[in-house]
Write a structure and sequence with these properties.
about 140 residues, Immunoglobulin-like, 2 domains, 6-stranded antiparallel beta sheet, 1 helix
Length: about 140
Amino acid sequence: MRFNRYLIFYIILGLGLVASWTLVGKRAQIAPNLGMHVMSLDDDCRAWAAPCGAYAKDFALVLGPDPKGRGLRLVGEKLPEGLRLVVQQFDDSAHPLSEPLVKRQPGDGWRIAPDPEAVRLRVNLAAGEDQWVAEFPLRAQRSF
């Protein structure tokens, strides 16, 4: 008699665990896919010395000097629409600095005024649920 009580208890417990794991699995399948894409950089990237590109599937971000100063330009055949741009800058110790001044230019470009202490610039482009991230070195990398 006592054995049957334990058996029924463990069967109910097992069914509860199976049901809860099934619900967790279904929730994991319907979690939104937040299309995060890390863009690949040119091998020898020194953005303020010469233009440097970060590449996505259908477009590229080019950061570098131009006749009007320092700028960021979006180039490619299929450019995403409704872009939001966020630029962050970091010092030698990878601490975030204040956001640089970013000014929209005609066409698909921006003027950037970074902090003189900045050694890396992270650019986040977002369009709808997709997001692209590129991280540009602003100075030549030190070799140890």
